[in-house]
Amino acid sequence: MEGHEDDELEDLNSTIYTFPPNVQNVIEQVLPSTDPLDQPNFNVVDYINSLFPTEQSLSNIDDVVNNMELKIRNIDKEIRSVVRGQTNVGQDGRAALEDAQKVIKQLFVHIKDIKDKAEQSEEVVKEITRDIKQLDFAKRNLTASITALNHLHMLVEGVDTLKVLTQKKQYGEIVLPLQAVMEVMQHFNSYMDIPQVKQLSDEVRQIHVELAQQITADFKQAFSGQNPKYFNQLTEGCLVLSVLDPKVKKDLLTWFVGIQLQEYAHLFDENQDFAWLDKIDRRYAWIKKHLLDFESKFGAIFPQDWEISERIAVQFCHVTREDLTKLMHKRRSEIDVKLLLYAIQRTSNFESLLAKRFSGITLENLDVGNKKNTTDMTDNKVPGNPFEQNEQV
């Protein structure tokens, strides 16, 4: 160790270092010194002359040499201490590096443990989440099952109730259960492959058919004579028909409107004197009187939104147009301008009366122009019943 340090000292002593001016200035600022030996422009001769300015001063040359040797030894000690310190620093650095590597290894082990624990925690969370999803699915299935069972219970009870009420013809009490059963049946559309549900669906369909046939038969029986009966039952039956298939209601109205115009077809047959154009006002007077009688006797039977009076009037217009078309073609030789103008005037007055009385909501298969006219008729509808006014048609 000592030999190595001596070699380094010899290398330092044998080497003369010259620094650039800027480096030298920085050194002077960091390590200021007044020692001539530290000056960059050190001159040996000048320095010796400063130590021995006269010949008499040479008498103490031994003291000066001893001081210089002492300084040299002190400097050597300082240099040796610095070199030894640098050696120790290298050893300390290697030791610190080894310690740092050990710490890094330990840190890596800790990180790996944390990663493993995180993966384990993730697996646990996945298992918990999987269990929660299964429970959620089970809850949904259980809720759906309970709802389906409740609907099935309502459906079974509703079907039994409808059967009893249908047999007793208690139409007023059928409407609400019938609507409820029809609504519940919609929830079972996807369960029709189940025999029990299919059977209930068939029973509901059969109840619809029985109600339609039964109410239609009641209407035909009630209006078969001169004095219709069971008005209250028929009114309640209309409410049931409003819930059933629209075709049932349409067929019943077609039949009913037809029987209302049977008398008209007989009175104004083409072989009758009243059928010709000169008596056309008799046709309009008949329908006016017939509608007033119908509304006073039977108007309360049907719901207002069925617009029975308007349907009768519309069918009357269709029948009248067909009858007059055939009759005018058959007796075209008897038509003159005066007769034709008379018929047109009476018909125009009657059409104006119809426009005031009805909205035209029952008209079907209309083109755009006719729809616009129907809207105008609705806007021009006046309150009250113009048929009750003593106007000449």
TrEMBL record:
GO CC terms of this entry: cytosol; GARP complex
Span of domain Vps53 N-terminal: 41-369
Chain spans, region Disordered: 370-393
GO biological process, one term: retrograde transport, endosome to Golgi
Name of the protein described by the UniProt record: Vacuolar protein sorting-associated protein 53
Organism annotation: Apis cerana
Organism phylogeny: Eukaryota, Metazoa, Ecdysozoa, Arthropoda, Hexapoda
